[in-house]
Amino acid sequence: MFGLKPIPVLVATVVFWALGFVWYGVLFMDAWMAGHGLTADQAGGFDIYMVGGILITLLQVMGLAFVLNWRNVSGINEAAKTALTLWFLLALPIIMYAYLYLPAHNSTLLMIDASHQLVGWLASAVILTVMK
To answer: What is the tens place of the pLDDT at every residue in 21-60?
Structure first.
């Protein structure tokens, strides 16, 4: 699909999704739950939302792979610059909608979500480029 190689896309998707597990389930779990006013019991476990998360991650990786291929990116530095630019112009503004329009205006949640997207996009871009 779109001239994308399935193995690099799948590997990048799994790595990005695993980063999300580490990000929200280990590194920033307490701050993320506190920012949403959740307890550990309310946060839940692996359910249908996790499947949705995998699909959303796959779509992001496919989009990134499409742009990297379209631009004929060949080096890791160029891949990282492309991912950073796309994150800054697309992902960050989308994430900022929740910050602006939800009543809490929680800067901690904004930083956790935005930094997860940045690291995920950078890791995916490097994987897609190396496995090209």
So the answer is: 999 989 999 898 888 887 777 766 667 777 888 999 999 9
Query: Token match 């990116």: residue?
Result: 73
End-to-end CA distance of the chain: 15
How many C-beta atoms lie closer than 10 Å to residue 128's C-beta?
26
φ and ψ of 122, to 5 deg: -65, -45
Q: How far is 55 from 74, CA to CA, in rounded Å?
A: 26
CA-wise closest residue to 1 among 72, 62, 61:
62
Tens-digit pLDDT profile for residues 115-127: 999 999 999 999 9
Tokens of 40: 């550990």
**What's the chain's length in residues?**
132
